[in-house]
Write a structure and sequence with these properties.
This protein has about 525 residues and is an alpha/beta fold. Helix content is about 25%, strand content about 25%.
Length: about 525
Protein backbone atom coordinates (compact mmCIF):
# COMPACT_ATOMS: atom_id res chain seq x y z
CA UNK A 1 0.00 0.00 0.00
CA UNK A 2 1.25 3.48 -0.69
CA UNK A 3 1.90 6.45 1.50
CA UNK A 4 -1.56 8.00 1.93
CA UNK A 5 -0.16 11.48 1.38
CA UNK A 6 1.55 10.48 -1.85
CA UNK A 7 0.11 10.67 -5.35
CA UNK A 8 2.22 7.70 -6.49
CA UNK A 9 -0.75 5.31 -6.58
CA UNK A 10 1.21 2.77 -8.58
CA UNK A 11 4.11 2.36 -6.12
CA UNK A 12 4.61 -1.38 -5.40
CA UNK A 13 2.96 -2.51 -2.18
CA UNK A 14 5.43 -2.77 0.67
CA UNK A 15 7.99 -0.49 -0.97
CA UNK A 16 6.55 2.94 -0.14
CA UNK A 17 7.98 4.81 2.85
CA UNK A 18 5.23 6.71 4.70
CA UNK A 19 6.10 10.31 5.42
CA UNK A 20 5.92 11.57 9.00
CA UNK A 21 2.33 11.94 10.11
CA UNK A 22 0.76 10.19 7.14
CA UNK A 23 1.30 6.72 8.64
CA UNK A 24 -1.15 7.61 11.43
CA UNK A 25 -3.98 7.99 8.91
CA UNK A 26 -6.71 5.38 9.24
CA UNK A 27 -6.41 2.56 6.74
CA UNK A 28 -9.26 0.37 8.04
CA UNK A 29 -12.31 1.15 10.15
CA UNK A 30 -14.63 -1.68 11.16
CA UNK A 31 -18.31 -0.89 11.60
CA UNK A 32 -20.08 -1.10 14.01
CA UNK A 33 -17.31 -2.17 16.43
CA UNK A 34 -15.26 0.98 15.71
CA UNK A 35 -11.94 -0.93 15.55
CA UNK A 36 -9.41 1.11 13.59
CA UNK A 37 -6.04 0.35 12.04
CA UNK A 38 -3.66 3.02 10.83
CA UNK A 39 -1.64 2.54 7.67
CA UNK A 40 1.44 2.10 9.86
CA UNK A 41 -0.26 -0.62 11.93
CA UNK A 42 -1.61 -2.45 8.87
CA UNK A 43 1.74 -2.25 7.09
CA UNK A 44 3.66 -3.47 10.14
CA UNK A 45 1.27 -6.37 10.79
CA UNK A 46 1.51 -7.46 7.15
CA UNK A 47 5.31 -7.33 7.16
CA UNK A 48 5.56 -9.25 10.45
CA UNK A 49 3.29 -12.01 9.19
CA UNK A 50 5.11 -12.12 5.85
CA UNK A 51 8.41 -12.65 7.68
CA UNK A 52 6.90 -15.30 9.93
CA UNK A 53 5.41 -17.26 7.02
CA UNK A 54 8.60 -17.06 5.00
CA UNK A 55 10.68 -18.05 8.00
CA UNK A 56 8.51 -21.12 8.57
CA UNK A 57 8.83 -22.56 5.10
CA UNK A 58 6.14 -20.83 3.03
CA UNK A 59 7.63 -20.29 -0.42
CA UNK A 60 6.58 -18.41 -3.59
CA UNK A 61 3.87 -20.36 -5.37
CA UNK A 62 2.48 -21.90 -2.15
CA UNK A 63 -1.04 -21.19 -0.97
CA UNK A 64 -2.21 -19.68 2.33
CA UNK A 65 -5.87 -20.20 3.31
CA UNK A 66 -7.56 -17.37 5.25
CA UNK A 67 -10.74 -18.27 7.13
CA UNK A 68 -11.83 -14.99 8.71
CA UNK A 69 -14.88 -12.80 9.00
CA UNK A 70 -14.43 -9.05 8.45
CA UNK A 71 -12.01 -8.26 11.27
CA UNK A 72 -8.77 -6.43 12.08
CA UNK A 73 -6.54 -9.26 10.78
CA UNK A 74 -7.93 -10.20 7.38
CA UNK A 75 -6.28 -7.45 5.34
CA UNK A 76 -2.90 -7.87 7.03
CA UNK A 77 -3.05 -11.57 6.18
CA UNK A 78 -3.85 -10.87 2.53
CA UNK A 79 -1.13 -8.21 2.22
CA UNK A 80 1.42 -10.54 3.83
CA UNK A 81 0.70 -13.28 1.31
CA UNK A 82 0.77 -10.85 -1.57
CA UNK A 83 4.22 -9.58 -0.58
CA UNK A 84 5.92 -12.99 -0.50
CA UNK A 85 4.66 -14.34 -3.80
CA UNK A 86 2.07 -16.83 -2.58
CA UNK A 87 -1.56 -17.44 -3.43
CA UNK A 88 -4.05 -16.44 -0.76
CA UNK A 89 -7.43 -18.14 -0.65
CA UNK A 90 -10.16 -16.32 1.25
CA UNK A 91 -12.59 -18.98 2.44
CA UNK A 92 -16.34 -18.32 2.75
CA UNK A 93 -17.14 -18.25 6.47
CA UNK A 94 -20.69 -19.51 5.86
CA UNK A 95 -19.56 -22.89 4.52
CA UNK A 96 -19.84 -26.13 6.43
CA UNK A 97 -16.72 -27.74 7.88
CA UNK A 98 -16.78 -30.29 5.04
CA UNK A 99 -16.85 -27.52 2.42
CA UNK A 100 -14.08 -25.56 4.16
CA UNK A 101 -11.95 -28.70 4.37
CA UNK A 102 -12.52 -29.37 0.67
CA UNK A 103 -11.15 -25.94 -0.27
CA UNK A 104 -8.13 -26.13 2.06
CA UNK A 105 -7.29 -29.58 0.71
CA UNK A 106 -7.99 -28.72 -2.94
CA UNK A 107 -5.67 -25.69 -2.91
CA UNK A 108 -3.05 -27.67 -0.92
CA UNK A 109 -2.67 -24.85 1.59
CA UNK A 110 0.67 -24.86 3.40
CA UNK A 111 -0.72 -22.52 6.05
CA UNK A 112 -4.16 -21.60 7.35
CA UNK A 113 -5.10 -18.50 9.32
CA UNK A 114 -8.44 -18.45 11.11
CA UNK A 115 -10.24 -16.15 13.51
CA UNK A 116 -12.09 -16.58 16.78
CA UNK A 117 -15.43 -16.30 15.01
CA UNK A 118 -14.63 -19.54 13.16
CA UNK A 119 -13.79 -21.57 16.27
CA UNK A 120 -16.52 -24.16 15.67
CA UNK A 121 -15.26 -24.92 12.16
CA UNK A 122 -11.62 -24.95 13.25
CA UNK A 123 -12.25 -27.44 16.05
CA UNK A 124 -13.45 -30.00 13.49
CA UNK A 125 -11.11 -29.23 10.58
CA UNK A 126 -8.35 -31.65 11.49
CA UNK A 127 -10.78 -34.60 11.33
CA UNK A 128 -12.14 -33.52 7.93
CA UNK A 129 -8.84 -32.85 6.17
CA UNK A 130 -7.38 -35.94 4.41
CA UNK A 131 -3.85 -34.76 5.16
CA UNK A 132 -4.65 -33.15 8.50
CA UNK A 133 -4.09 -29.52 9.39
CA UNK A 134 -1.27 -27.71 7.56
CA UNK A 135 1.93 -27.44 9.58
CA UNK A 136 1.20 -23.75 10.05
CA UNK A 137 -2.24 -23.29 11.60
CA UNK A 138 -2.68 -19.84 13.17
CA UNK A 139 -5.73 -18.95 15.26
CA UNK A 140 -6.42 -15.27 15.96
CA UNK A 141 -7.44 -13.82 19.32
CA UNK A 142 -7.90 -17.02 21.25
CA UNK A 143 -6.58 -20.42 22.21
CA UNK A 144 -7.30 -23.60 20.26
CA UNK A 145 -5.59 -26.98 20.60
CA UNK A 146 -3.33 -27.75 17.66
CA UNK A 147 -3.21 -24.10 16.53
CA UNK A 148 -0.66 -21.36 17.17
CA UNK A 149 -1.96 -18.17 18.67
CA UNK A 150 -1.98 -15.27 16.21
CA UNK A 151 -0.86 -12.49 16.44
CA UNK A 152 1.30 -13.54 19.42
CA UNK A 153 3.40 -15.77 17.16
CA UNK A 154 4.56 -12.77 15.12
CA UNK A 155 5.22 -10.47 18.08
CA UNK A 156 9.00 -10.69 17.76
CA UNK A 157 9.12 -10.25 13.99
CA UNK A 158 10.17 -6.92 12.47
CA UNK A 159 7.45 -4.74 10.97
CA UNK A 160 9.92 -2.93 8.71
CA UNK A 161 9.54 -3.21 4.91
CA UNK A 162 10.76 -6.50 3.48
CA UNK A 163 14.11 -6.52 1.72
CA UNK A 164 12.70 -8.62 -1.10
CA UNK A 165 9.08 -8.96 -2.24
CA UNK A 166 7.36 -11.11 -4.86
CA UNK A 167 3.87 -10.58 -6.21
CA UNK A 168 1.28 -12.97 -4.78
CA UNK A 169 -2.23 -13.46 -6.13
CA UNK A 170 -5.75 -14.04 -4.88
CA UNK A 171 -6.80 -17.64 -5.56
CA UNK A 172 -10.55 -17.24 -5.37
CA UNK A 173 -13.05 -20.07 -5.17
CA UNK A 174 -16.35 -19.83 -7.01
CA UNK A 175 -19.54 -19.65 -4.97
CA UNK A 176 -20.36 -23.25 -5.82
CA UNK A 177 -23.98 -22.35 -6.61
CA UNK A 178 -24.10 -25.02 -9.35
CA UNK A 179 -21.75 -27.61 -7.88
CA UNK A 180 -18.47 -28.00 -5.99
CA UNK A 181 -16.56 -24.68 -5.66
CA UNK A 182 -13.64 -24.34 -8.05
CA UNK A 183 -10.42 -22.44 -7.49
CA UNK A 184 -9.74 -19.74 -10.08
CA UNK A 185 -5.99 -19.39 -10.47
CA UNK A 186 -3.97 -16.85 -12.42
CA UNK A 187 -0.27 -17.14 -13.19
CA UNK A 188 2.15 -15.65 -10.67
CA UNK A 189 4.71 -13.13 -11.85
CA UNK A 190 8.26 -13.24 -10.46
CA UNK A 191 8.22 -9.52 -9.75
CA UNK A 192 7.70 -7.01 -6.96
CA UNK A 193 4.02 -6.34 -6.16
CA UNK A 194 2.50 -3.86 -8.59
CA UNK A 195 -0.53 -1.59 -8.31
CA UNK A 196 -3.77 -3.37 -7.47
CA UNK A 197 -5.84 -0.95 -9.51
CA UNK A 198 -8.11 -2.37 -12.22
CA UNK A 199 -9.83 -0.78 -15.24
CA UNK A 200 -13.08 -0.41 -13.27
CA UNK A 201 -11.35 0.88 -10.16
CA UNK A 202 -9.67 3.59 -12.20
CA UNK A 203 -13.08 4.67 -13.50
CA UNK A 204 -14.18 5.33 -9.92
CA UNK A 205 -11.35 7.78 -9.25
CA UNK A 206 -10.45 6.51 -5.77
CA UNK A 207 -7.42 8.31 -4.34
CA UNK A 208 -5.70 9.34 -1.08
CA UNK A 209 -8.57 11.66 -0.12
CA UNK A 210 -11.25 9.01 -0.67
CA UNK A 211 -13.21 7.00 1.89
CA UNK A 212 -14.23 3.64 0.45
CA UNK A 213 -17.13 1.66 1.94
CA UNK A 214 -17.21 -2.12 1.60
CA UNK A 215 -20.44 -3.57 3.06
CA UNK A 216 -19.84 -7.18 1.97
CA UNK A 217 -17.66 -9.98 3.39
CA UNK A 218 -14.04 -9.63 2.34
CA UNK A 219 -13.89 -13.31 1.35
CA UNK A 220 -15.66 -12.41 -1.91
CA UNK A 221 -13.50 -11.43 -4.89
CA UNK A 222 -14.51 -7.81 -5.43
CA UNK A 223 -14.53 -6.79 -1.74
CA UNK A 224 -11.11 -8.41 -1.30
CA UNK A 225 -9.52 -6.89 -4.38
CA UNK A 226 -11.10 -3.47 -4.14
CA UNK A 227 -10.53 -2.81 -0.45
CA UNK A 228 -6.88 -3.64 -1.02
CA UNK A 229 -6.82 -1.48 -4.15
CA UNK A 230 -8.29 1.39 -2.13
CA UNK A 231 -5.65 0.92 0.58
CA UNK A 232 -2.99 0.74 -2.15
CA UNK A 233 -4.23 4.12 -3.37
CA UNK A 234 -3.99 5.59 0.15
CA UNK A 235 -7.75 5.71 0.78
CA UNK A 236 -9.42 4.88 4.08
CA UNK A 237 -11.56 1.74 3.88
CA UNK A 238 -14.69 1.39 6.00
CA UNK A 239 -15.54 -2.31 6.37
CA UNK A 240 -18.98 -3.33 7.60
CA UNK A 241 -18.70 -6.38 9.84
CA UNK A 242 -22.14 -7.36 8.60
CA UNK A 243 -24.41 -5.61 6.12
CA UNK A 244 -27.33 -3.74 7.60
CA UNK A 245 -29.46 -1.48 5.41
CA UNK A 246 -29.73 1.45 7.82
CA UNK A 247 -26.19 0.84 9.04
CA UNK A 248 -24.89 1.43 5.51
CA UNK A 249 -26.58 4.84 5.41
CA UNK A 250 -25.20 5.61 8.85
CA UNK A 251 -21.68 4.69 7.66
CA UNK A 252 -21.91 7.03 4.69
CA UNK A 253 -22.84 9.96 6.92
CA UNK A 254 -20.56 9.14 9.85
CA UNK A 255 -17.36 8.54 7.86
CA UNK A 256 -17.95 10.85 4.90
CA UNK A 257 -17.89 7.94 2.46
CA UNK A 258 -17.01 9.04 -1.07
CA UNK A 259 -17.05 5.69 -2.91
CA UNK A 260 -18.77 2.36 -2.30
CA UNK A 261 -19.65 -0.94 -3.89
CA UNK A 262 -23.00 -2.68 -3.35
CA UNK A 263 -24.91 -5.61 -4.80
CA UNK A 264 -28.53 -5.25 -5.99
CA UNK A 265 -30.05 -7.03 -2.98
CA UNK A 266 -28.47 -4.37 -0.76
CA UNK A 267 -30.11 -1.66 -2.88
CA UNK A 268 -33.46 -3.37 -2.46
CA UNK A 269 -33.12 -3.64 1.31
CA UNK A 270 -32.19 0.04 1.57
CA UNK A 271 -35.09 1.04 -0.68
CA UNK A 272 -37.52 -0.95 1.48
CA UNK A 273 -36.57 1.03 4.60
CA UNK A 274 -39.27 3.41 5.92
CA UNK A 275 -39.14 6.80 4.20
CA UNK A 276 -38.25 8.56 7.44
CA UNK A 277 -35.22 6.30 7.89
CA UNK A 278 -34.10 6.62 4.27
CA UNK A 279 -34.00 10.40 4.49
CA UNK A 280 -32.57 10.64 8.01
CA UNK A 281 -28.95 10.51 6.86
CA UNK A 282 -26.76 12.94 4.94
CA UNK A 283 -25.40 11.11 1.89
CA UNK A 284 -23.96 14.15 0.15
CA UNK A 285 -20.33 12.96 0.52
CA UNK A 286 -20.91 10.22 -2.07
CA UNK A 287 -19.14 10.76 -5.38
CA UNK A 288 -19.46 7.40 -7.17
CA UNK A 289 -21.11 4.13 -6.24
CA UNK A 290 -20.75 0.92 -8.19
CA UNK A 291 -22.62 -2.37 -8.26
CA UNK A 292 -22.18 -5.80 -9.82
CA UNK A 293 -22.29 -9.52 -8.87
CA UNK A 294 -25.92 -10.03 -9.91
CA UNK A 295 -28.32 -8.38 -12.37
CA UNK A 296 -30.06 -5.30 -11.00
CA UNK A 297 -33.75 -4.88 -11.91
CA UNK A 298 -34.20 -1.74 -14.02
CA UNK A 299 -36.89 -0.34 -11.73
CA UNK A 300 -34.71 -0.82 -8.64
CA UNK A 301 -31.79 1.01 -10.24
CA UNK A 302 -34.06 3.85 -11.36
CA UNK A 303 -35.27 4.24 -7.78
CA UNK A 304 -31.69 4.29 -6.47
CA UNK A 305 -30.66 6.95 -8.99
CA UNK A 306 -33.72 9.00 -8.09
CA UNK A 307 -32.63 8.80 -4.44
CA UNK A 308 -28.82 9.14 -4.68
CA UNK A 309 -28.49 10.89 -8.02
CA UNK A 310 -26.82 9.74 -11.28
CA UNK A 311 -23.69 8.48 -9.49
CA UNK A 312 -24.48 4.74 -9.53
CA UNK A 313 -22.27 2.99 -12.05
CA UNK A 314 -22.24 -0.69 -12.97
CA UNK A 315 -19.76 -3.23 -14.19
CA UNK A 316 -20.01 -6.80 -15.38
CA UNK A 317 -17.18 -9.21 -14.80
CA UNK A 318 -16.31 -12.46 -13.09
CA UNK A 319 -13.79 -13.89 -10.67
CA UNK A 320 -12.18 -15.50 -13.73
CA UNK A 321 -11.49 -12.07 -15.25
CA UNK A 322 -12.68 -13.32 -18.64
CA UNK A 323 -13.71 -9.78 -19.58
CA UNK A 324 -15.13 -6.61 -18.06
CA UNK A 325 -17.74 -4.13 -19.22
CA UNK A 326 -18.62 -0.85 -17.53
CA UNK A 327 -21.38 1.73 -17.75
CA UNK A 328 -21.79 5.06 -15.97
CA UNK A 329 -25.13 6.04 -14.51
CA UNK A 330 -25.64 8.81 -17.07
CA UNK A 331 -25.10 6.37 -19.93
CA UNK A 332 -27.28 3.70 -18.31
CA UNK A 333 -30.22 6.10 -18.14
CA UNK A 334 -30.10 6.23 -21.94
CA UNK A 335 -29.78 2.43 -22.20
CA UNK A 336 -31.53 0.98 -19.13
CA UNK A 337 -30.62 -2.62 -18.46
CA UNK A 338 -27.24 -2.53 -20.19
CA UNK A 339 -24.05 -3.55 -18.38
CA UNK A 340 -22.05 -1.32 -20.68
CA UNK A 341 -19.22 -1.51 -23.17
CA UNK A 342 -16.04 -3.56 -22.70
CA UNK A 343 -13.07 -2.05 -20.90
CA UNK A 344 -11.24 -5.39 -20.81
CA UNK A 345 -11.54 -7.89 -23.63
CA UNK A 346 -13.83 -8.06 -26.66
CA UNK A 347 -17.31 -9.61 -26.27
CA UNK A 348 -18.72 -12.15 -28.72
CA UNK A 349 -22.22 -13.65 -28.73
CA UNK A 350 -22.30 -17.27 -29.94
CA UNK A 351 -25.15 -19.65 -30.69
CA UNK A 352 -25.29 -23.29 -29.58
CA UNK A 353 -23.17 -24.30 -32.59
CA UNK A 354 -20.44 -21.76 -31.81
CA UNK A 355 -21.42 -19.34 -34.60
CA UNK A 356 -21.18 -15.63 -33.86
CA UNK A 357 -24.55 -13.88 -33.75
CA UNK A 358 -25.40 -10.39 -35.03
CA UNK A 359 -26.52 -7.47 -32.86
CA UNK A 360 -29.79 -8.01 -31.04
CA UNK A 361 -29.72 -11.82 -31.04
CA UNK A 362 -29.41 -13.68 -27.72
CA UNK A 363 -26.66 -16.22 -27.20
CA UNK A 364 -23.80 -17.25 -24.94
CA UNK A 365 -21.51 -14.39 -23.90
CA UNK A 366 -17.82 -15.02 -24.62
CA UNK A 367 -14.88 -12.67 -24.16
CA UNK A 368 -11.65 -12.47 -26.11
CA UNK A 369 -8.52 -11.01 -24.53
CA UNK A 370 -9.30 -11.17 -20.79
CA UNK A 371 -6.98 -12.32 -18.03
CA UNK A 372 -5.34 -15.72 -18.19
CA UNK A 373 -6.65 -18.24 -15.65
CA UNK A 374 -7.36 -21.90 -15.09
CA UNK A 375 -9.70 -23.81 -12.80
CA UNK A 376 -7.46 -25.40 -10.20
CA UNK A 377 -7.19 -29.18 -10.58
CA UNK A 378 -9.90 -29.22 -13.26
CA UNK A 379 -8.51 -29.06 -16.81
CA UNK A 380 -11.82 -30.30 -18.22
CA UNK A 381 -13.74 -27.37 -16.75
CA UNK A 382 -11.02 -25.00 -17.98
CA UNK A 383 -11.28 -26.42 -21.50
CA UNK A 384 -15.10 -26.30 -21.43
CA UNK A 385 -15.02 -22.56 -20.67
CA UNK A 386 -13.12 -21.88 -23.91
CA UNK A 387 -14.50 -21.74 -27.45
CA UNK A 388 -12.53 -23.14 -30.41
CA UNK A 389 -11.30 -19.58 -31.00
CA UNK A 390 -9.90 -19.44 -27.45
CA UNK A 391 -12.62 -17.09 -26.18
CA UNK A 392 -13.95 -17.58 -22.64
CA UNK A 393 -17.45 -17.84 -21.17
CA UNK A 394 -18.57 -18.08 -17.54
CA UNK A 395 -22.08 -19.23 -18.50
CA UNK A 396 -23.91 -15.94 -19.04
CA UNK A 397 -26.43 -15.35 -21.81
CA UNK A 398 -27.11 -12.01 -23.47
CA UNK A 399 -26.80 -9.84 -26.55
CA UNK A 400 -25.04 -6.78 -27.96
CA UNK A 401 -26.99 -3.85 -29.36
CA UNK A 402 -26.09 -1.97 -32.55
CA UNK A 403 -23.64 0.27 -30.64
CA UNK A 404 -21.83 -2.58 -28.88
CA UNK A 405 -23.52 -2.25 -25.49
CA UNK A 406 -23.90 -5.56 -23.66
CA UNK A 407 -27.22 -6.70 -22.17
CA UNK A 408 -27.46 -9.85 -20.02
CA UNK A 409 -30.49 -12.12 -20.27
CA UNK A 410 -29.63 -14.71 -17.60
CA UNK A 411 -27.25 -17.55 -16.88
CA UNK A 412 -27.27 -20.62 -19.11
CA UNK A 413 -27.83 -23.08 -16.25
CA UNK A 414 -30.92 -21.12 -15.08
CA UNK A 415 -32.82 -21.70 -18.32
CA UNK A 416 -36.21 -23.41 -17.98
CA UNK A 417 -37.49 -25.63 -20.80
CA UNK A 418 -41.28 -25.63 -20.53
CA UNK A 419 -43.51 -27.03 -23.29
CA UNK A 420 -40.63 -26.79 -25.74
CA UNK A 421 -40.05 -23.08 -24.98
CA UNK A 422 -36.76 -21.74 -23.56
CA UNK A 423 -37.56 -19.42 -20.63
CA UNK A 424 -34.97 -17.30 -18.85
CA UNK A 425 -36.30 -16.59 -15.32
CA UNK A 426 -34.41 -13.36 -14.66
CA UNK A 427 -37.18 -11.33 -16.30
CA UNK A 428 -39.89 -12.70 -14.00
CA UNK A 429 -37.62 -12.26 -10.97
CA UNK A 430 -37.14 -8.59 -11.75
CA UNK A 431 -40.88 -8.07 -12.14
CA UNK A 432 -41.58 -9.73 -8.78
CA UNK A 433 -38.90 -7.66 -7.05
CA UNK A 434 -40.64 -4.56 -8.41
CA UNK A 435 -43.64 -5.28 -6.17
CA UNK A 436 -43.43 -3.17 -2.98
CA UNK A 437 -44.08 -6.16 -0.71
CA UNK A 438 -41.15 -8.17 -2.12
CA UNK A 439 -37.49 -7.87 -1.15
CA UNK A 440 -36.12 -10.84 -3.12
CA UNK A 441 -37.33 -13.46 -5.61
CA UNK A 442 -36.17 -16.67 -7.26
CA UNK A 443 -37.79 -18.20 -10.33
CA UNK A 444 -36.82 -21.70 -11.52
CA UNK A 445 -38.12 -24.81 -13.22
CA UNK A 446 -39.54 -27.84 -11.44
CA UNK A 447 -40.44 -31.20 -13.02
CA UNK A 448 -43.82 -31.26 -14.79
CA UNK A 449 -45.37 -34.41 -16.34
CA UNK A 450 -46.92 -32.56 -19.30
CA UNK A 451 -44.53 -29.64 -19.90
CA UNK A 452 -41.21 -31.12 -18.88
CA UNK A 453 -40.72 -28.22 -16.49
CA UNK A 454 -43.13 -25.67 -15.05
CA UNK A 455 -42.18 -22.22 -13.77
CA UNK A 456 -42.06 -21.84 -9.99
CA UNK A 457 -41.35 -18.72 -7.90
CA UNK A 458 -40.24 -18.33 -4.31
CA UNK A 459 -40.27 -14.86 -2.81
CA UNK A 460 -38.93 -13.17 0.31
CA UNK A 461 -41.20 -10.48 1.72
CA UNK A 462 -40.40 -7.20 3.42
CA UNK A 463 -42.76 -8.42 6.16
CA UNK A 464 -42.62 -12.23 6.33
CA UNK A 465 -45.81 -12.33 8.40
CA UNK A 466 -47.73 -10.99 5.37
CA UNK A 467 -47.37 -14.32 3.52
CA UNK A 468 -50.78 -15.65 2.49
CA UNK A 469 -52.63 -17.31 -0.37
CA UNK A 470 -54.19 -13.94 -1.16
CA UNK A 471 -50.78 -12.25 -1.49
CA UNK A 472 -49.51 -15.11 -3.64
CA UNK A 473 -52.44 -14.58 -6.00
CA UNK A 474 -51.81 -10.82 -6.01
CA UNK A 475 -48.17 -11.42 -7.01
CA UNK A 476 -49.19 -13.82 -9.78
CA UNK A 477 -51.60 -11.22 -11.13
CA UNK A 478 -48.85 -8.58 -10.89
CA UNK A 479 -46.49 -10.67 -13.04
CA UNK A 480 -49.15 -11.71 -15.57
CA UNK A 481 -49.99 -8.06 -16.18
CA UNK A 482 -46.37 -7.40 -17.18
CA UNK A 483 -45.10 -10.54 -18.95
CA UNK A 484 -46.33 -13.00 -21.52
CA UNK A 485 -48.08 -15.92 -19.84
CA UNK A 486 -45.46 -18.56 -20.68
CA UNK A 487 -42.82 -16.59 -18.72
CA UNK A 488 -45.00 -16.30 -15.61
CA UNK A 489 -44.79 -18.57 -12.57
CA UNK A 490 -47.62 -21.03 -12.13
CA UNK A 491 -47.17 -21.03 -8.37
CA UNK A 492 -45.57 -18.85 -5.70
CA UNK A 493 -44.20 -19.92 -2.33
CA UNK A 494 -42.75 -17.82 0.49
CA UNK A 495 -39.45 -18.14 2.34
CA UNK A 496 -38.27 -16.01 5.25
CA UNK A 497 -34.86 -15.72 3.59
CA UNK A 498 -33.69 -16.86 0.17
CA UNK A 499 -30.38 -18.78 0.01
CA UNK A 500 -28.36 -15.91 -1.41
CA UNK A 501 -24.71 -15.16 -0.63
CA UNK A 502 -23.64 -11.82 0.78
CA UNK A 503 -22.24 -11.04 -2.67
CA UNK A 504 -25.67 -11.47 -4.25
CA UNK A 505 -25.30 -14.97 -5.74
CA UNK A 506 -28.44 -17.09 -5.43
CA UNK A 507 -28.23 -20.82 -4.65
CA UNK A 508 -31.17 -21.88 -6.79
CA UNK A 509 -30.08 -25.49 -6.56
CA UNK A 510 -31.25 -25.54 -2.93
CA UNK A 511 -34.70 -24.28 -3.93
CA UNK A 512 -35.00 -26.67 -6.88
CA UNK A 513 -34.26 -29.59 -4.56
CA UNK A 514 -36.77 -28.33 -2.00
CA UNK A 515 -39.66 -27.61 -4.34
CA UNK A 516 -38.90 -29.94 -7.24
CA UNK A 517 -39.59 -33.05 -5.28
Amino acid sequence: MVDPSSERAGVPAGRAEPTPGSSAKTAVTLYPSGVRLSFAELDSAANKLARFLRGHGVRPGDTVAILMENNRHIHAAAWAARRIGVYYTLVNTHLSVTEVAYIIDDCEATAVLASRGQRGICQELDRELPRGLPALALFADGELDGWQRYPDCIAHESGAPLDETWEGQLLQYSAGSTGQPKGIRRPLRPAAPSSLSTPVFRELGVGPDSVYLSPAPTYHTAPAMWTMAAQDAGATTVIMERFDAEGALKCIEQFGVTHAQFVPTMFIRMLRLPEAVKHRYDLSSLKRVIHAAAPCPVDIKRQMIAWWGPIIDEYYGSSEGAGISFIRAEDWLRRPGSVGKPILGVPHILDDDGRELPAGEVGDVFFEGGYDFDYLNDPEKTAAAHSPQGWVTVGDVGYLDDEGYLFLTDRRHNMILSGGVNIYPQEAEHVLIGHPAVVDAAVFGIPDHDLGQSVMAVVELVDPSAASDELAQELLTWVRARLSRQKCPRAIAFEKRLPRTDAGKLYKRTLVERYGG
